[in-house]
Amino acid sequence: MAEGRISVVMVTWRTGPHLAEAVEAVLAAPDVDEFILVNHDNPPDVMAALETRAGENAKMTLIDTGANLGFSKGCNIGAKVATGDFLFFLNPDAVLPAGVARQMAETGETAHRPWIVGARLLDKNGKEQRGARRGLLTPWTAMVGFLGLHRLEPVFGRAFHDIHRERDPVPLGPIRIEVTSGAALMMRRDDFDALGGFDEGYFLHVEDIDLCRRVVEARGHVLFEPRAELLHYGSTSEASLFRVEWNKAHGFRRYFWKFYDRFPQRVLTLMAIPVIYGLVVARSVYIWLRGWIDGWYRRIRKLDA
Fold this sequence. Notes:
Elements: E1 6-12, H1 19-28, E2 34-39, H2 44-56, E3 60-64, H3 71-81, E4 86-90, E5 94-95, H4 100-108, E6 115-122, H5 139-147, H6 153-156, E7 175-177, E8 184-188, H7 189-194, H8 207-217, E9 221-232, H9 241-259, H10 265-304
Parallel strand pairs: 1-2, 1-4, 2-3, 6-9
Antiparallel strand pairs: 4-8, 5-9, 6-8, 7-9
């Protein structure tokens, strides 16, 4: 059994109705020794409820930053306060079952350090979500994913392989991967500190890909632990879809500029970045328009009824 204390670090900004459920699940988990919740400007009633809960439970420490400082910075703030041997970064819309945190720590201790262990994220219907097991993100694989070019793999081969693996059979035990999701990610705290934590140049999205990349470059292991399953609602914050997607595009730009700075990769980066920004804008408009049409159609049907 893995020795050491486990600290859960959770960053929240106007998460919505599932925050209370996520908080209670962490507090109820017997394998979690400490809970650091970093509050980025939640509404007053939510903040009051969090303060009350922190006052009732010695396991919970509440940090109020007073502003939305971004996910990376929030995680780093929480990690500096945490005292555990293992840091478990958990989204505020994820529901942690008992035993999952300890399972991830035990799996990690079998790997080459520095290590990261990611959980298997399930939606409310029990279907595995995208992102928890991925291949290496490059300018080319990003283009394949954004443009749907993975459909060409049967004709042109592995060069067009989709880096997202959630449609693959679920492995029986942990497997090595290139990237896992920051929605439920564990590291040893000394390894996290040695790598400099999350890169605060990312505001929201891609910071987890960056951290996984640095672990692999340090000759460590990134593992996907399929036995560590948890419910992740996803997309529950009040942030506009366009703002979220725009931050994601900024994250991709920073990542590619950081890791692909030599010829010929730089050329492909210069080609990929405007495509990504354009597709992000198009996707946001499409989702908004689809939602507006669906809402309009429901109102019409209600009137007809």
